[in-house]
Amino acid sequence: MRVAIIGGGVSGLMAADYLNGLVDYTLYEAADYLGGHADTQTVHIDGQAIEVDTGFIVFNEDVYRHFNDMLQRHEVPSIKSDMSFAVSNKVTGLEYNATNLSSLFCQRKNLFNPGFYRMIWDIRRFYAKAESLIQSGTEIGLYDYLEQNNYSDYFIEEHIIPMVSALWSGDFDTVRDYPLVHMLQFMKNHQMLQLNKRPEWRTIKGGSRAYVKALSEQLTGEVRLNTPVIGVSRNHGGVVVETDQQAEAFDRVIFATHSDVTLNILKDPDAVEQAALAAIPYVENHMDLHTDERLLPANRKAWASWSVNKHVISKPVCTVNYYMNLLQSLPCETPVIVSLNQNEYINNSQILVSRKYQHPVYNRDTLSAQQQIESIQGKHNTFFCGAYLGWGFHEDGARSGVKAAKALQDQL
Fold first, then answer.
1. Total Cβ atoms within 10 A of residue 220
2. The pLDDT of residue 193
């Protein structure tokens, strides 16, 4: 059986890895590298070459089971990471780091701030009610729930909205409509609803390109880089994949591309494919890898692995920073920072690399769309996978790639 796999990110790589030796596959990738969001940059800082991840960064072994299984099979080493969270409000001057009591009150004036104590109380209240909310299956959005249950503006605007924005790389306005139960289920799965004994997070030693290299070296199919697919049509006998160079016939196709890209490539989507794929849009985020510490909180005690900035001029974008020295235990003194959508605040001379990444946008229609896509796996000789079929994270991409490959195997 000949299989076309379109997309060389984690989903396509995991599907190909599973199908090694089972089918004759060709993996198409539009970019000049494999990995997608597993994107490692080599930069020179403090007189040494350092590998820094600017897309996918961390995982934990308990939750990222498909991904971790792949790492174990391909003997890819990882090291401990740090997942502390901070907020820096450039309008009001509020800063805090939620790691411990000392960093939480790194601004001593908050010891006398009633709103700050109310925020802490609301954090505990929100987490305490999470399990019952998950069990309820309510379809309410995040902001509507918080408003109806009298959560303070301080908690909403200075904690939960920035946190959800950072987690899903979404803007402050869009994430307000995020489905509450979907969000809480994700946090439960990642053991983020507990205030103590949180899981250990890890990062790939030498950067995520190390796992991409190890996995890709074991692929038995043909890999074509710099080969964007411009069209796919299906018939009873199989599928036809078109590129600028040629059109080729295959028995099956696995789309490991984003939902919007998949819809653009499909020449003959049926009504369900059209509606379901269109219901999960993507947003583009501009990333800068830089060394301008002004993007981090002014108070060094508030420096955390990921921090959200609230700027004076608010834009409908995610404004999160990743402090890579902590996240990847970088061997340098100079702060190395990944910032999303904050290019105008960064000293141009300190920008090392810029990229654009796409992230799925979730709303209360997402779950239904995901279920529709899963219900048509294999129809028209077509399979779908991608992080958009889960919560949008690397494990979701890994799991869906394996799941699509298994579904295809069942048709052999």
1. 13
2. 78
